[in-house]
Amino acid sequence: MHLLTLPFALAFGLGVALLIGLAAQRLLGVRLGLFRLLLTGVFAMSVGPLIVYAMLTEFVAPADELTRQNGSTAFWFVLLAAVCTILSSMAFLVIIEAFVPLGSIPPALVWGRGLLGRLKRSRRYWQIVGIAMRHGLGSYVRGTRDRALDVPSGRAQLGRSLATTMNAGGVTFVKIGQILATRRDLLPAEVAAELAKLQDQATPVPWPDVRAVVEAELGAPVDQVFAEFDPQPLGAASVGQVHAARLRTGAEVVVKVQRPGIRPVVERDLDIAARLASRLETGTRWGRRVGVRSLAAGLATAVREELDYRIEADNITAIAGSTTRAEGVVLPEPHLALCTERVLVMDRVDGVPLTKAAAVVTEHDLDREQLATTLLDCLMRQIILDGVFHADPHGGNIVLLDDGRLGLLDFGSVGRLDGALREALQRLLLGVDHSDPLAVSDALLELVPRPDEIDQQELERDLGRFMARHTSGTLTSSARMFGDLFRVVADHGLAVPPEIAAVFRTLATAEGTISTVAPEFDLFTSARRLASGYVDEQYGPENLRNAASEELVALLPILRRLPRRVERIASAAEHGRLGMNVRLLADDRDRSFLRDMLHEVLLTFLAATTGIMSAMLLGTAGGPMVTDSVSLYELIGYNMLVISAILALRVLAQIFRRGPRHD
Question: Domain ABC1 atypical kinase-like, which positions (predicted)?
Fold first, then answer.
């Protein structure tokens, strides 16, 4: 019998708990998950009997001495106890919301599904933490060596520790370190220089595993798709490796194949990197200054893009399809029908990497200055005119072909600029070329998010000193020049957008590549000259005539309607019917904000008023007696006190619910 009644008792208890939770939710005006509803109900069922017992024994009579005479009185106190129970459950919910906001803990179903994954992630997390501690990053993570970063030697030591840690951390952290090395707009030059030493090399994947990936992605045996496929890779990196092959059409291609099982490893490590970044930003001064949390999010996006070879194929197509391609530069053509998430097939561009081409240039008596100008012209046209550019032009990605042309490889990292940013960047280069601090300042403020307050006159003076230092005819490293520009930007509270940082990073990387074949080439002076030439191309007589014709065609419908509209306005003004309608708070967001604010103010006022009235009633002597010790005034006061607490808790719940989220 007891075994049969137990399930009914549990079901009844859960139902009552759920109803109490729903009542508390309704009174607070928030939505809760099922788990919180049941937890609130269980709490109320635990404290409710205690509240009832306390009220009956204190104000009416002991529970075992209740009589018919005081039964009606007891009913009202039991009702009051029930309301107090719901009030206690509301307070319980507000406390939970204050310390454990809704959404900060995954649902129970997720716990079960991801338990094994979380255990693996925790093991990997502590493994990475251990690696960091062994290589000297512990004091930086704890924030005890922040002051050491104020001197170059301290920053260099941090860079070495960071580089060795990332190298020991594996593929994901090596990739992150390589991308970080290019972010000289955010990291000190000493740290970036150490991270630039990271090498993305790995042991080749065995041919059977490579074959399995290719066949799974292309849906056919390798022999049916390719006439030849070299099992020995041309090169192997941590994410993928490249093989030479020939299609059945006779086209010579290269096949980039992603390592099997690399994506889950990368995703797990990116999650760990995000958690470490959050810890660094909240616990260290240098982490907050750099903004490592947003930096880690950007790096994660870049790494994930490199894991999808379809994005790289689209990048090649976008750059190859531009209308302003520079002469003397070859891009591989992707075979889109054979490009998937883990396999990329494109034409083979066979040549010598530019970093190893010095002997070839000498042997064929090639013009070093012309090679450097060709590469820079290609990149500048992509940046200034097209808005889609190769963002990683290091020496391994630029090859010298047998006919003297240059070839661009590896389009996993591509930058994009919209029209407004391209025009502002062009004006910035022209302002530097003309030594005009005012023009440079105006263009710079269009490139970066402008703060509410800025001393523009001081910014112009700093930019004038910057141009005097770097445009006075002396050859200056672009990396150093961009570092000084970033320092000026940071000193005035400005933040360089990632798109513009990618431009400066690309030019600095290109300078290092160009210097291997043309050490005396002045990249910045040449970039300024090329930018001026692009202006002449864009605003020549023929282009201006075409632009004016296009604008006139677009304006014709407006111009045709303009006389009638002017006549209507004049007629309305003449007859006194001209008026203006201005709608305040036309935006839904403004109305919603004002409505919520007024509701909270009203609830706060009602809570305070009801609380004051309850205190006055509780302090008023006399009046009809409900029991021997409680008057009617006191009973009403207790009820109004409960109402006041409910209103106050509702306001607190809304405040906590809209509080900032850091999870």
Answer: 197-437
